[in-house]
Amino acid sequence: MPSPDPASTFAGNVCRSDASEPDxxxxxxxxxxxxxxxxxxxxxGSRMGGxxxxxxxxxxxxLAQHSLRRLQTQVGTVLLNANRHLKxxxxxxxxxxxxxxxxFAGPLAGFIAAMENCRTPYLVTVPCDTPQFPADLVARxxxxxxxxxxxxxxxxxxxxxxxxxxxxFRQPVFCLIKVSLLPDLRAFVADGGRKIGAxxxxxNTVQVPFDEPGAFANANTLAQLQALQQ
Length: 230
Prior knowledge:
Layout: E1 9-11, E2 14-16, E3 30-31, E4 35-41, E5 57-58, E6 61-62, H1 63-72, E7 77-82, H2 86-90, E8 96-97, H3 107-116, E9 122-127, H4 137-147, E10 152-160, E11 166-178, H5 182-190, H6 196-200, E12 205-210, H7 222-228
Parallel strand pairs: 4-7, 4-9, 7-8, 10-12
Antiparallel strand pairs: 1-2, 2-3, 5-6, 9-11, 10-11
């Protein structure tokens, strides 16, 4: 398994591999202003008994607001994807976009809604239920996408496999995507596609490894949310 990329940061408004290194070319650079970020909070919350997951509190803030604050320092523009309690979500200060596909069609519907409202060539997606995702997530995804001439960069995290050995597992909701893929994504969903991995598997996608323990721990249930706060 390949070792992870060196930690990346934003230097000024530029995404680069390390602020202490000299610029060596565009392969490691991307202007943050070219990236829109979206927090996905449009699900049914079925594993939380129908509660709106993004509005459940973590560290005194709603999960979605916590994720929004963490994301907005990494990108040029932010959006929030939600399908209910829109007034509450708008109070967080970011434009709220609802799915244009009916019946809670899943995260890809949120991808489409964000891409339809995106005014930049790149979109990065994060879920509302993973409040400690890396503070340099976007920088590292951008470095890989540009460096590998990919169309999508997807995070993968070190976790324990079923036999207890460490392995990298895809984190498909954490993607940096070229917005020009919107027509292809629309066609995929129109044909009944719902799985992020099935769509990204058809694209020029690069996996970006992250080793930080617990960085992608999420809260699908109230018990998991409580455990995250301990």
